[in-house]
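In practice, a research group might receive sequence data for several interacting partners and want a quick structural hypothesis before committing to experiments. The following worked case mirrors that situation: the sequences arrive first, and a predicted assembly follows.
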Amino acid sequence: MLGRKQLKGKGSGLKGGLFSGRRIGTGDLRTYEDLNKYRRAVSRRSKTILALSILGLILIFFAALMIGSYRLSVVEVVGMLLGTSDDPVGSYIVTEVRVPRILCCIAVGAALSASGLVMQSLFKNPMASPSVLGISSGAAFGASLALAFGVGGFLGRYMVPGMAFAFCFITMTAVYMLARTRYGVVSTTLLLAGVAIGAFFSGLVSLLQYVVNENVLSNIVYWTMGSFNNCGWESFQLAIFPVVAGLMIMLFNIKELNLVAAGEEQAVNMGVNIKKLRILMITATSLAVGGSVAISGVIGFVGLIVPHIFRMAVGPNHALLMPLCIFGGGIFMILMDTIAKSAFAMSLPVGVLTALIGAPFFIYVMRTKKKEIWD
Amino acid sequence: MDLEIKDLSFSYDKRDVLCSVDLTAKRGEVIGIIGQNGCGKTTLLKCINSTLKPGAGSVTVDGRSISEMSRKDIAKKIAFVTQTTSISFPFSVYDTVMMGRYPRLEDEGRKEDDDAKAVFQAMKDTGTLKFADRPVNELSGGERRRVMIARSLAQEPEILLLDEPTLHLDINHQFDLLELINKLAEEKNILVLIVTHDIVLAARYCDRIVIMQNKRIHKIGETLKVMIPENLKETFYIETEVSEDDRFGLNVLLIGKCGDAADD
Amino acid sequence: MLKTNMIMSVIAVAVLVVAAAGTYVILNSDEPEKKGLYKLDATVISVDMGKCSATPAVIVTLEDMYKAYYGDLVRNDLTLADARSDATFWSKYCEWTPIIESNPDGTFDVRVATNAKGTETKNIPVCDTAIILGTMYSETLYYLICTEYGTDVYSDESYSDQNIRDYMNKTVAGGMQYSYFERDNVDYMSNLIDAGSYIDIGVTSVQSLDAERLASALVEAKARTSGNVVYFASGTRISTSEHYNNNTGPCVATGTHYAFFSPSEIKEVFASVECIGLLMGFSEETVYGLIEDIQLRMYKVYYSVQEKTAKRTAEKAYWEGSSGKAVSSAMANVILEFLGFNNSLLDGAEHDVESLLVDRPAFLIFYTNDGRTSGEMMRENN
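A structural hypothesis for the assembly, expressed as tokens:
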């Protein structure tokens, strides 16, 4: 796992020490000053990691900008970005096709990763993620309704993301209600509820495919595979508001998430308003996932893989983990999309690639996390 | 400051769990709550810090009813150390103890240093400083419990509720823990309520004893007066001998099950 | 107790023996029992899917299906004048609304329609090179060039004619995945178009189009000619704003043109032929000559159908795609209606053997590119 993180964050190769476990090496702490030193060391480390991840994101943004089926050299791309180029085709490609596509990758990657993290912490389940818990299927169904029958037309251009958001919310609430018991949320029940609800909505989407005419059908089918092929500036504008809103809500509740991750009962004892937190988090993830599914279709496993990788690297403190998942999620998504569109003879929908990588990862998590105390 | 519990009742799904409980206590006291399983001990604790909402009756702290207080305000006054010490994620001990500062983060006039100082003091008092950077789930049961107590101390509470704090601990650590609790109660003038199964330790380390039976408080009073063989026989169906020992105070000798106990 | 049990077992064995005997008898009866849909004794035909959309080749489908079901034409000596005077036929199937208008300066105004943005009028000059995302457009060009040279479509003669070969290679510079032509037996394309010089954009649908590849293709096409390049694609499939951007952005950026088509009835085939023909510089003689030829052939079939189905209730036809579900496209409905069939079974759903045996379609239609065996298609094992 360390290797993977080092691959993604360019320049992180030199900081092997940062990721080699969580211990900062405190020796014997005896005085208040000692503790302060430790505190500052932790803080420094966090800031460095964050800075590196932002740097990594910027670097990979530019790297991805160079890749595409239309051949452009680095110099040309820079010129097109700065607006000094007089090649209309290249400029079009760079500014209207590649830049918005990569920006959409960042938005979707960040949204799915952060949502996966929130779900894993809230439900204390290592498998929780938008696709596993059927949330993405619900969002896809909402989006399909909008596409097929124009349901939600009153929302105008926000019709598709609006419906996706609404169904995200409904799905997540349903899963939560099914899994809730007097003693909190039971892990296995949660997963089963997610599978059930996911299957239900997938079934509905299939039913929809049966009912609609050919043209809408191909749109819906395409949707379920997840792709950034049709993500231009319009898509970015559509998704950025709900995604940012969702992420903001999550970021404002980092402390609460830490406490809840420690244990719901303990969090309540320390003053967390659990009901309010749940509603906020369900809303936040619905906004983020809804906005993402609306533009890129269903992309699975991102919300599962990314939080796990970063949690293993830097620990469970959301103060660092949440922003890291946001930037790291963006990096991950850009990587996946770039590989999917250019590494194979036929360009693959990115959802297929993440599923191919995600399933073995899922199995890996299942097998190793048996030992950890998760519930 | 006073803790006053009046006529407290609680039921789960039409099943009575607590009936008309009355209790008052002062800061600095260590009160042990004992009784058979199902007598309502833990439920009582949970009603005190409002984790459970009582069906009837009231809990007031310093004259203020807790049902009118926000969760954060309650957490500032009352800390609860649960039975289970497991934490799902490998948070560092420092981060864990820092969680206890949550209710006070938005206090007026709070300085950033205040949190660090409180955490430091809590960890020093519980002897957990040396674990600061360790992941909390790598610690032993006893060490973890001390961390949880440090966390609850970081809340700077006036009342500390402990649910079976000595469960699963090595015997020497059980002594350590109760010595620590007593010391803290005295030094910081905290009211401590301990729910425990351990009659022997309760006798040694508590100022007052509450014996609960059948969802009610059966006997309450100074340890010396309440911890007598008649009461223990009545509630626990065991034969005991109680004596005073110069070395450690009250000694309860457990002889065995009552010969003529009614079959339950 | 025992006695009852014994009697029961004796009866059970007797029943089994009778059943076995009966099965044996039935299985060995002289006449082989018909299985699955063969029981219907319906006419069965397989048609080329590419010729069932709004392309000039639809006439081939109509003629083939007519012949399979009804046999020979009633009259072969009808003229275009006869067709025109048959007002019902003419207004329903032949009077089209043009989507192209010639301007005095030699350019054209083309009404481009997409599901995403409705209709817009684009001013397009005469073009000589096309990038096609759909076989309908290349097929139209093929029909036009064959009409110009007086050659029969789909004939070996047309495949070996150098003029036709040169024209097709130059004009259809590239577009949808070349391997599609081989896979789906689009013979005129695989026979005429040289795979090496064909600019492949790697997809077969507008939704999966990669804007960058389209841009490269258009740039390369433009480099090959001093004339104008146009991009042809399906307007109905361009159903979202982003699809629209992806398909038009590259054209605007490369200084090329685009035209999208959304035909759903036979009339609109003529509108498309006219548009593509005039836009690509064919003479009015060729364009309207082809159109009239198709109209006349259509009328002959229509006339015969009217004769054969007069005073009879329409028989049901069942048309199934390779997915095992009934076809439901607009053109399929139009075709069956034209041929005098009841098209109530074209609902896009799965029809199992039993329901089909109840509905009793007299005409079963499948696609030639259906991967199933005839046994599977006819549900022989059910």
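Before designing any experiment, note the following. Chains C and B do not touch (no CB pair under 8 Å). The first helix of chain C runs from residue 2 to 27.
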